[in-house]
Design goal:
Layout (H helix, E strand, L loop, with lengths): L1 H19 L3 E4 L2 H5 L2 H13 L3 E4 L7 E5 L7 E6 L2 E7 L5 H11 L1 H9 L1 E2 L2 E2 L20 H12 L20 H5 L4 H6 L11 E3 L17 E3 L1 H12 L14
Parallel strand pairs: 1-2, 1-3, 8-9
Antiparallel strand pairs: 3-5, 4-5, 6-7
The structure holds heme C.
Length: 251
């Protein structure tokens, strides 16, 4: 009697673990499967994430694929094979495991595992940087020097604005250089005042935002005009993006 109770409790303790292991089937092109790509990646990934993946060479049976993708195909670009883009592409609707796998492949251990993989003694994958994305030229007509001044005045108390002065920022605010490397940095910076935590503390002249949160704040409110925002955005455009794609290196 007592023993059964014990088994029962043990079973309950392990139940949540079983729940975490969300299985997904991954399409991998046959030559890579034959070379053991799944056996190279999946155990390492499972060790980290507890998500169990299985491989298939049948695309119609897969939740998502790790495979060559067209430049305009939607998916997560994780590597190249020569000039070919390789990425994770959903084959079924909303595969959650794909997002977790993508995050791992972009982390240092995941990237290293991928780049370590060899086909006939030669590394198969290279980092995704080699395919140059289409560069969209946007003419930003603001004043860089003024934008820098405004950023140092208003933003530097939370964000690292200038790499040579990395102190004084608060922990959960991303640095300007890091944000500059987002592919959507331009819309992000052009509308930052609408995103929290700024809404409570930044007022833009000429924008009557009914949602502006006017609760009292404990630091001085920042008043900016749209011209100021343009200057800040133009200044940010001159920042060197932080290279989030490269392997770790000492700086
Ligand atoms: C009181 C601290 C504070 C100040 C001052 C501040 N920020 Fe932020 N900002 C943050 C935090 C915290 C985040 C991260 C929010 C998050 O991750 O949800 C952030 C995020 C951002 C983002 C990313 C927004 C997004 O949609 O992801 C941009 C762009 C940004 N800030 C620009 C600025 C600029 C430009 C200024 C100066 C005019 C400024 N911030 C002033 C705290 C601040």
């Amino acid at each position: 009697m007592c023993r059964w109770l014990r088994y029962w409790i043990v079973a309950w303790l392990f139940l949540p673990l079983a729940g975490i292991a969300a299985d997904a089937r991954v399409f991998i092109p046959e030559p890579w499967l034959d070379a053991g790509l799944d056996q190279h990646l999946f155990p390492r990934f499972m060790f980290k994430s507890r998500v169990r993946l299985s491989a298939t060479s049948d695309e119609t049976k897969a939740d998502f694929g790790l495979r060559p993708m067209a430049p305009d195909e939607s998916g997560v670009h994780v590597a190249n094979v020569d000039e070919l883009m390789v990425g994770l592409v959903a084959e079924q609707a909303s595969p959650k495991a794909m997002a977790v796998f993508a995050e791992w492949l972009k982390s240092d251990p995941g990237r290293a595992a991928l780049l370590d993989f060899q086909l006939a003694g030669v590394p198969l994958f290279t980092t995704p940087k080699r395919v140059q994305p289409v560069v969209v030229e946007v003419a930003l007509t603001g004043d860089v020097a003024r934008g820098k001044q405004l950023s140092e005045l208003h933003c530097a108390r939370c964000h690292v604005v200038d790499r040579s002065k990395p102190f004084g920022a608060i922990g959960n605010s991303p640095s300007f250089h890091a944000m500059r490397s987002f592919t959507d940095w331009l819309p992000t910076f052009s509308t930052f005042y609408g995103a929290n935590p700024h809404r409570a503390l930044i007022a833009i002249e000429s924008i009557q935002d009914p949602h502006t949160d006017l609760r009292p704040v404990h630091i001085a409110r920042i008043h900016l005009t749209l011209d100021d925002v343009l200057d800040i955005v133009t200044f940010v455009s001159t920042l060197e993006p932080l290279d989030l794609g490269a392997p770790v290196q000492a700086r």
